[in-house]
Amino acid sequence: MSISTNLWVWLAAFLTLTIYSFLYKDNIMYKFAEHLFVGASVGWSIAIIWHLTVFQYIIDPIKEAVLNKDVLGFILVLVPTIIGLMYFSRFSRSKGWIARWPIAVTMGYYTGISITPSIETNIFKQVEGTILTSFNPGSLGSWWALLLLVGVVTTLFYFFFSVKHAGFVGRTAKVGIWFVMIAFGASFGYTVMARVSLLIGRIQFLLHDWLGIIK
């Protein structure tokens, strides 16, 4: 292992241990590693945005439009750029209201463009998948399909607040609560597994790459 590589390994090990030192108590070394991580992430993000967004979608198209004397292309790039620059008016107390315009344009654009795919993906495709799965014949798969159908219907009853949850609706909604809790528990368990996997990776790094205890 070269000296430069060994130096980076020691630095990575030091930062790993300083982050995990928070498990004991909050300390200055943890704050140092935390601020270093946030600062490096922000700096890297700014560099990526500058090179892959500003240059690629603003500066280069404007240069190309000017060289080709493409007035329409120049306007199509300049207008969104001006709208984007209006966000920076938030740094001014007297001109901060200008930022409402680009925020309104952004919210309106993304709301309008997301309505169709959201309905298609979150409603129609889900209903289609539930119907096709539920009525697909098979041995064990049929029971799982029936369970899926019951879970979908009872959960929808639970989130249907236009009718009082009493009688049949109330009993059905209570069954839906169980499915919701199971889903939340599975999601939380998956999150914990992912975090444990990251912990195992760091321990392997410390014991293998840094200390060389395991091969």
Structural summary, described in words:
- There is one protein chain.
- The protein has six helices and no strands.
- It is mainly α and 215 residues long.
- It has a domain at 135-215.
- The longest helix has 44 residues, at 167-210.
DSSP, total strands: 0
What share of residues is helical?
A: over 70%
Overall geometry comes to flat
Number of helices: 6
Gap between N and C termini: 15 Å
Strand content: under 5%
Listing every helix as H and every strand as E from the N terminus to the C terminus, the arrangement reads: HHHHHH
Structural class: mainly alpha
- What gyration radius follows from the Cα positions, in whole Å? 27 Å
Let me know the largest β-sheet.
Answer: none
Low-confidence residue ranges: none
pLDDT average, as an integer? 90
Which terms summarize this structure?
single chain; 215 residues; mainly alpha; 6 helices
Summarize, please:
The chain has helices spanning 3-20, 28-67, 71-85, 100-134, 140-158, 167-210. With 215 residues, the chain is an all-alpha fold.
SSE layout and pairing:
Layout: H1 3-20, H2 28-67, H3 71-85, H4 100-134, H5 140-158, H6 167-210
Helix pairs in contact: 1-2, 1-6, 2-3, 4-5, 5-6
